[in-house]
Write a structure and sequence with these properties.
The chain has about 475 residues and is an alpha/beta fold. It contains 14 helices and 13 strands. The protein binds 6-O-phosphono-beta-D-glucopyranose.
Length: about 475
């Protein structure tokens, strides 16, 4: 069982979920700053408000206060032996509104300091440009990525980052989980495309989504071209949320449904990697009467700005049953059924380590590019004991089983895998629910859903476990 010697072991976070400091250093308001806290127990969803409203609870405003704790946090990662650290750059620290002509120096300086801190310990920063935190101003005044104008705003932001960090960051990703928009949940469209829910009223969700995704894909391709011109050694990838969709049974219609649903959720990878749309999508646009603005110039740009590697997140899998009222097998969550072979987390996420190996093979069969697993983790309620310890053996079990499946895919199927960054080494705010109590970390952050706590950091049991995993290049999993 051998991973490459320079395997990138590490962890991943996103700026808006960890940093806090929402108004520091000239930062503008992001879409994450106008999302209230939800709750898994009462099933209260996050709400997107029209600006910051007094008295509401916005968990991302302070988050884990990494803005002020980053030195301590990076030191913890170094203690575990991290080779890399994936984070994102908050767009609103660099361009607070989006249409300024010059970037904000204080914002750029913050990431200079952060990346220097990583390099001090030999930790390679891996950077996502847009991870659910685009400027609220861009969403409100321009309508987010449903508007072609936003392509230029993104490219300007990306170029400013590439130029500034050309000697400090080698690995980049353009848009986090661009394909989650396939799920017609308003918070996905706002997080991935910057489209506010009230701008969707009276419109066909799917048509808006295809348009927004197209402009993002063009923006991504243009950014990749610009990045490679700035530093030819840059490795710039896409980032796909991968939840494999299995057939519910071996009934041929279920098999076909699963295959078509995979197309429906993962076509974004085709465009990122091959620089062109698959044929079935043109057929679907025609059938649905969607009028998507895709120009000949766009098609050329997509071809020229393909990615260098495929990064993906993996948490769970789904199963689908063919339904008579869905004769074209269009992707829709209503056709999903529970998988009786799998258990689920307290948030209903089905636990499936084998699915990770399946996903790696699925990508490798279709695309001839290296892969990187940039998110995989277990959100759980942790309990701190009186002596300050946290026994998170369930997290060790989840991560251990997934790392084992990952190593089997490398060893048995020869998958070209660059690295693994688990989600998320320090406790942070959940993206889907806004909770602090949905914890992923090796490092506990003393703060609860109500926002109470000292923000003190402490090591959980899994901290020591992951240190050993890295030390042995994964081999300790088999002990
Ligand atoms: C991914 C996102 O969807 O899953 C992260 O890229 C997110 O931002 C992670 O935090 C886990 O989801 P959640 O909702 O548990 O935070």
């Amino acid at each position: 069982m051998s991973l490459r010697k320079d395997f990138l072991w590490g962890g991943a976070v996103a700026a808006h979920q960890i940093e806090g400091g929402w108004q520091e250093g000239g930062k503008g308001i992001s879409i994450a700053d106008v999302m209230t806290a939800g709750d898994n127990v009462t099933k209260k969803p996050r709400v997107i408000t029209d600006g910051v409203i007094e008295g509401e609870n916005y968990p991302n405003h302070e988050a884990s206060d990494f803005y002020h704790h980053y030195k301590e946090d990076i030191a913890h990662l170094a203690e575990m032996g991290f080779k890399c650290f994936r984070t994102s750059i908050a767009w609103t620290r660099i361009f607070p509104k989006c249409d300024e002509t010059e970037p904000n120096e204080a914002g750029l300086q913050f990431y200079d300091d952060l990346f220097d801190e990583c390099h001090k310990y030999g930790i390679e920063p891996i950077v996502t440009l847009s991870h659910f935190e685009m400027p609220f101003y861009m969403a409100k005044e321009y309508g987010g990525f449903a508007n072609r104008a936003c392509i230029d705003f993104f490219v300007k932001f990306a170029t400013a980052c590439f130029e500034r960090y050309k000697d400090k960051v080698k690995y980049w990703m353009t848009f986090n989980e661009i394909n989650n928009q396939a799920d017609p949940i308003p918070h996905h469209l706002v997080q991935e495309g910057g489209i506010l829910p009230w701008d969707l009223e009276g419109k066909d969700y799917e048509e808006v989504m295809y348009q927004s995704a197209h402009y993002e894909l063009v923006a991504s391709a243009l950014a990749i071209k610009a990045g490679h011109a700035i530093n030819p050694d840059f490795k710039i990838g896409c980032m796909i949320a991968m939840c494999p969709i299995y057939p519910a049974t071996c009934k041929p219609e279920d098999i076909l449904a699963a295959s078509r649903f995979m197309q429906g959720k993962y076509w974004y990878t085709d465009v990122h990697v091959k620089g062109k749309y698959p044929n079935w999508l043109a057929k679907k646009f025609a059938r649905k009467g969607y009028n998507i603005d895709i120009t000949e110039e766009d098609k050329k740009i997509l071809k020229e700005g393909v990615v260098d590697y495929i990064a993906f997140s993996y948490y769970m899998s789904y199963a689908v049953e063919a339904k008579e009222d869905n004769p074209y097998y269009d992707y829709r969550e209503a056709d999903f059924v529970p998988n009786g072979y799998l258990k689920a987390s307290d948030w209903g996420w089905q636990i499936d380590p084998v699915g990770l190996r399946y996903a790696m093979n699925w990508f490798a069969d279709r695309f001839d590019l290296p892969l990187m697993i940039v998110e995989n983790g277990f959100g759980a309620y942790d309990k701190m004991e009186d002596d300050g310890s946290v026994d998170d053996s369930y997290r060790i079990e989840y991560l251990g089983n997934h790392i084992k499946a990952m190593m089997e895919a490398v060893e048995c199927e020869g998958i070209d895998l660059m690295g693994y960054t688990m989600w998320a080494p320090i406790d942070i705010v959940s993206a889907s629910t806004g909770e602090m109590d949905k914890r992923y970390g090796f490092v506990y952050v003393d703060k609860n859903n109500a926002g109470e706590g000292t923000l003190a950091r402490s090591r959980k049991k899994s901290f020591y476990w992951y240190k050993k995993v890295i030390e042995t290049n994964g081999m300790s999993i088999f002990e």
